[in-house]
């Protein structure tokens, strides 16, 4: 498409030159005493218009010289000035006003000398010359107006682009300020609360071991989960505070910590299994994080809404996509549609942002299933 756009003006210039050449060929053919030299001059002056955009002064000089040669040998009338008028327009539009005025004046003066308009008397010559002067002036004025209009449009486009860039910068600045505000709020509230949970759980574990008692698995799970939550929260705060580092979330969890996630779910009393199929490979960071979060949210929902159920996590490294599925054998009603809570909406948003598909619904045989298909692009 870009190649066609590049060659389109050249084709248009060629069509203009050919049309002018055909027109002057007819004029020369019906002009008395015209011969091969006159036809060659008319064709050369017309075909010079091929360069009227890229080299307007060259086109003007060549067309003016050829048309004067034609007019000096035969009497083609005002039609011989048409290629020169087009070249005058092009040269004026390109900004060569002084040179164009000089060439135009020289052409008109020489044309008067060789009686370019006609041979029917000096009064008729002056009338035709006045008509040609009017055409030349009109071409110059039209070219000047066109040049100013083009400059105005370019300036308007530049200002629009500048305004758009300014709006984008302002939006980015406001977004950055909002991220910093959220980071401060999270740090001042959530970080403090999680730290207290982690410290209290650690103290409880320490006291239990000091007294020689068995540490409850739930307490160990709280201690581990609070530590993981603190680590991930710090990673999130780093992302919020440093928007120029798109890989800042690399500290966040991915499928490399899937076993830890499932083990933590087991420690809370949720029977869970993991099945991985396909050839494991490096995943795009956003896909890796989304898959982990989907499994995490699905296991949380099983523990929260399907008490006593077992969960089965399946990860399939397919050719062009990653399939993550979490099934449970709870008592979800197949005829009752799921109520979209915050967690389910979050999963849908993550999958949609990656161009994938999410299915979260009761299973016909009972229980609930969450299946996410995340595209990977070309398989590596």
UniProtKB/TrEMBL annotation:
Residues 289-376 form the Histidine kinase/HSP90-like ATPase domain. Residues 360-380 are annotated as: Disordered. It comes from Actinomadura citrea. It catalyses: ATP + protein L-histidine = ADP + protein N-phospho-L-histidine. It comes from the Bacteria. Keywords: ATP-binding, Coiled coil, Kinase, Membrane, Nucleotide-binding, Phosphoprotein, Transferase, Transmembrane, Transmembrane helix, Two-component regulatory system. GO terms for molecular function: ATP binding; phosphorelay sensor kinase activity; protein dimerization activity. The keyword Secreted does not apply. InterPro entries: HATPase_C_sf, HATPase_dom, Sensor_HK_TwoCompSys, Sig_transdc_His_kin_sub3_dim/P. SUPFAM superfamilies: ATPase domain of HSP90 chaperone/DNA topoisomerase II/histidine kinase. This is histidine kinase. Pfam families: HATPase_c (PF02518), HisKA_3 (PF07730). Residues 178-244 form the Signal transduction histidine kinase subgroup 3 dimerisation and phosphoacceptor domain. One of its GO terms (cellular component) is membrane. Residues 149-178 form a coiled coil. Its EC number is 2.7.13.3. The chain crosses the membrane at residues 54-72, 84-114, 126-145.
């Amino acid at each position: 498409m870009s190649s066609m756009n590049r060659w389109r003006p050249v084709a248009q210039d060629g069509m203009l030159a050919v049309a002018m050449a055909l027109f002057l060929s007819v004029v020369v053919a019906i002009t008395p005493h015209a011969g091969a030299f006159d036809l060659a001059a008319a064709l050369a002056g017309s075909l010079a218009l091929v360069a009227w955009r890229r080299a307007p002064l060259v086109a003007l000089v060549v067309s003016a010289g050829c048309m004067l040669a034609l007019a000096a040998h035969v009497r083609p009338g005002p039609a011989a000035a048409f290629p020169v008028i087009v070249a005058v327009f092009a040269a004026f539009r390109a900004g060569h006003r002084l040179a164009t005025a000089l060439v135009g004046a020289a052409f008109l003066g020489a044309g008067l000398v060789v009686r370019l308009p006609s041979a029917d008397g000096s009064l008729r010559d002056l009338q035709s010359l006045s008509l040609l002067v009017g055409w030349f002036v009109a071409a110059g004025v039209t070219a000047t107006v066109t040049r100013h209009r083009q400059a105005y449009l370019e300036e308007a486009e530049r200002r629009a682009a500048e305004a758009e860039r300014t709006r984008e910068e302002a939006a980015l600045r406001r977004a950055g300020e909002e991220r910093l505000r959220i980071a401060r709020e999270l740090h001042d509230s959530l970080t403090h609360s999680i730290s207290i949970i982690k410290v209290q759980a650690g103290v409880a574990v320490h006291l239990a071991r000091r007294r020689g008692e068995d540490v409850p698995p739930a307490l160990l799970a709280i201690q581990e989960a609070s530590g993981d939550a603190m680590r991930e929260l710090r990673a999130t705060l780093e992302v919020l505070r440093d928007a120029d580092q798109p890989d800042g979330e690399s500290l966040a969890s991915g499928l490399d910590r899937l076993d830890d996630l499932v083990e933590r779910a087991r420690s809370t009393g949720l029977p869970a299994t993991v099945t991985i199929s396909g050839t494991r490979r490096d995943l795009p960071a956003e896909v890796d994080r989304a898959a982990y979060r989907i499994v995490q949210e699905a296991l949380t929902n099983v523990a929260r809404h399907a008490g006593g159920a077992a969960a089965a996590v399946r990860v399939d490294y397919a050719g062009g996509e990653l399939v993550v599925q979490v099934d449970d054998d709870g008592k979800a009603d197949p005829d009752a549609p799921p109520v979209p809570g915050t967690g389910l909406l979050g999963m849908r948003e993550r999958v949609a942002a990656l161009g994938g598909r999410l299915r979260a619904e009761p299973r016909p045989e009972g229980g609930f299933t969450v299946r996410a298909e995340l595209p990977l692009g070309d398989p590596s």
